[in-house]
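Hi everyone,

Forwarding the result from last night's run.
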Amino acid sequence: MRHVAAMIAGKQRDTATFDVIKSPFDGTDVSEVALATTLEVDVALASATKLSRDYARTSRHERALVADRVAARLAERREELARIITLESGKPIRYARAEVDRAVTTFTLAASVARTLGGETVPADAVPRGAGELIVVERVPRGVVAAISPFNFPLNLAAH
């Protein structure tokens, strides 16, 4: 029986359940992707939830460094990622390269926002008991998002 590796909760696990990704051009096998069981999804979500709580406590500077590293890594692997996008989706290589570039920009902008976007104060005197008081608003990471990304911009949509 063949097994395909999956990264779940920071650990590489082998699974016998997988799907074959086929080229939309000629139907040839491009790669294989592991299919998670319900238990594996639960483990992954629990791990992601814990990590998101830890991440919410990081400084804006640390968050910016993470986004900077992601942008740099995407840029380093631009051709490889563009080739994979092209093989999997049938998108022309120049559009796949543009998609990788957009993802790099997304993380570069996110790093900038992480460094500069702070909280704000709002006067609370819209109601009588709020006279002389201020409300402090701070933006913090919200948590785990589970999403299904359409096929047409897989990397860029995941970046967003």
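The helical segments are 38-56, 60-76, 78-89, 93-116, 154-159.

Cheers,
N.
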